[in-house]
């Protein structure tokens, strides 16, 4: 005798079985303007993706043709953003919104800009300190104390892998020296921060203060992170009057805290 109860002939709603592929959707598309980018999709729309504490977040890298695809996405309303992981567009970010349905396929195209007329640059806009000295070392408390208090990088002769460190971890000033001349145009100085530990950074160009910023504490550097923490993009304007004929000097002065750099670049205009 069979005592098993009969199985009802009903369809189980998706909200009871989110783990099945049929109840999820896909978001795909292209990112133009950059050879490499990360695409982030998140449903806690009241938060920024790099500070999200609630909900779900998905991410994908673009391929060589700029295509990305994010599969098995829970249905719902999302924000979607792309940021570069190459080039020098450290302040470039494109964002949109998308609604995902069960079994649906959504297409979102995003565009990132790459600055032109670059005079010089250190590193790459990948939100990491990976192009600088010691960034490839395993986590260890010793590295925090190795970078010098004072440091000078000379554009054209210094090597970022040897002469610019993964973090400015002690109070003091670091300098970048380069050749330039007034030409009637301003300059755009991009300083991208890969991590910061309750820091105060002043940026001076030939003695003129162009930046005076305080950063929150992401705990990364003094907890031995070697490449990243909380990312911050800074864009400073250098007027034509602040440019001198011959050797120019940019000073990065830290009075408190620690800074990890992603990329620094100077653009004409």
From TrEMBL:
<dbReference type="GO" id="GO:0030246">
    <property type="term" value="F:carbohydrate binding"/>
</dbReference>
<keyword id="KW-0732">Signal</keyword>
<dbReference type="Pfam" id="PF14686">
    <property type="entry name" value="fn3_3"/>
</dbReference>
<dbReference type="Pfam" id="PF14683">
    <property type="entry name" value="CBM-like"/>
</dbReference>
<dbReference type="InterPro" id="IPR029413">
    <property type="entry name" value="RG-lyase_II"/>
</dbReference>
<dbReference type="InterPro" id="IPR013784">
    <property type="entry name" value="Carb-bd-like_fold"/>
</dbReference>
<dbReference type="InterPro" id="IPR008979">
    <property type="entry name" value="Galactose-bd-like_sf"/>
</dbReference>
<protein>
    <submittedName>
        <fullName>Uncharacterized protein</fullName>
    </submittedName>
</protein>
<dbReference type="InterPro" id="IPR029411">
    <property type="entry name" value="RG-lyase_III"/>
</dbReference>
<dbReference type="InterPro" id="IPR051850">
    <property type="entry name" value="Polysacch_Lyase_4"/>
</dbReference>
